[in-house]
Specification:
Helix content: 25-40%
Strand content: 25-35%
Strand order of the largest sheet: 5-11-10-6-12
CATH architecture: 3-Layer(aba) Sandwich
Number of domains: 1
Oligomer: single chain
Shape: globular
Largest sheet: 5 strands, mixed, barrel
Structural class: alpha/beta
Length: 221
């Protein structure tokens, strides 16, 4: 298989890079390697929706059998342990709309054309992925750290997690018709900003372990 792995930052995929053979362009934002029988390309887009959508769309083509978005995320649900790897099967551009006083108006309510919700029906299914918790997410420009805005987001969208790139990656894959999966590991809870309570190293370790397990298992199909 030929696989594209997309991440916002290099450190989110660093452990997996170390498992590649014949890794080329290791210092750049686009790297090529081999994992067992698979060709694996890594794209590091930078943080945010715009670079993720642009660079993913630019790189994707029908030579890829699968695209994987790897990253960390914040969880609105404190019953999900830090480090848990999740399959984000549905994602929202939650800020796309308009404010009307205290009310939020969606594109649909504004009668404007556009995509706000993406549901993964691409068929990128596999036993390792299917065993992961399936959750919904929101993609934001500004991560939540204010109790009032957190409450509003939960009431409006009922998300489990938030990221700054997920829906943009999914949108690009949908447009190109490439099977994909968005995998996120929980590094923190969505609350008033408290970095001391975060565990980014654990999230990255667990995320890379799960993707390595997934890639290994693809040989067994």
């Amino acid at each position: 298989m030929k696989i594209l792995i997309v991440s916002a930052t290099k450190f989110e995929v660093e452990p997996l890079l170390g498992q590649m053979t014949s890794l080329r362009n290791a210092g750049s934002s686009f790297m090529c390697g081999t994992f067992k029988a698979h060709e694996v390309d890594f794209l590091v887009t930078g943080v945010g929706m715009v670079p993720t959508a642009y660079y993913t769309g630019k790189v994707l083509n029908d030579s890829y059998d699968l695209a994987v978005n790897m990253g960390i995320c914040g969880s609105f649900n404190k019953n999900i342990d830090l480090g848990t790897v999740l399959n984000v099967y549905e994602d929202l551009f939650s800020e796309l709309g308009a404010e009307d006083g205290e009310a939020f108006l969606s594109l649909e309510e504004l009668k404007l054309q556009g995509v706000t919700k993406i549901t993964n029906t691409s068929g990128a299914l596999h036993p390792v992925i299917e065993m992961l918790p399936k959750v919904t997410g929101i993609t934001v420009n500004t991560t939540h750290g204010n109790e009032s805005s957190i409450q509003k987001a939960v009431e409006r969208f009922h998300p489990y997690v938030e990221s700054m790139e997920g829906a943009a990656f999914m949108f690009a894959c949908e447009q190109e018709g490439i099977p994909y999966v968005q995998l996120r590991a929980v590094s923190n809870y969505v609350e008033k900003r408290n970095r001391e309570a975060w565990n980014i190293p654990l999230a990255i370790e667990q995320l890379n372990h799960k993707v390595s397990e997934f890639l290994t298992s693809l040989n067994e199909l």
